[in-house]
Specification:
The protein has 146 residues and is mainly α. 46% of the residues lie in helices and 3% in strands.
Length: 146
């Protein structure tokens, strides 16, 4: 689950369903910060503005200086251009995550080939990098992939 939306059911104005605990409360920043930033950035772009300043966070907040919001990260454009429908950000997160794994594996393959490693060895190297610990631990926080 790339966006832990079960956390929303345990915060006001919602009530926990049947008293069940939150699966992992340590990843709530994914919903309360990053998801909200992506929605705000998309709305700002559709209004014809650069998403530089977030007036909804305390007394205002320079959003472009927040590394995790990735305002100027090239693959962040997926969140801005996704079709307008209720779950656009969830689908964009899936594509964003998949692209990082795919591009990481492909670039590692190209790097291994450049180093003189054969095709099979380079494919193993690309697969191990894309599915290895460095990237898979960041799947829980897609904003850290960028």
């Amino acid at each position: 689950m790339l966006v832990p939306l079960d956390i929303l059911a345990h915060n006001p104005p919602h009530e926990p369903p049947g008293g069940e605990p939150v699966h992992n409360p340590l990843i709530a920043d994914m919903v309360f910060e990053n998801y909200a930033w992506k929605v705000f950035q998309r709305e700002a772009v559709y209004r014809g503005e650069w998403p530089l300043w977030n007036p909804y966070s305390f007394c205002g907040h320079p959003l472009y200086t927040t590394g995790q919001s990735a305002t100027f990260y090239p693959l962040n454009v997926l969140f801005w251009l996704w079709p307008d429908r209720p779950a656009f950000v969830l689908h964009a997160y899936a594509l964003y995550t998949w692209l990082h794994l795919f591009l990481g594996g492909m670039f590692m393959y190209a790097f291994c080939r450049r180093m003189g490693i054969g095709g099979f060895g380079s494919a193993v190297g690309g697969t191990c990098f894309a599915m290895g610990g460095f990237l898979t631990t960041r799947l829980l926080w897609p904003m850290l992939l960028g």
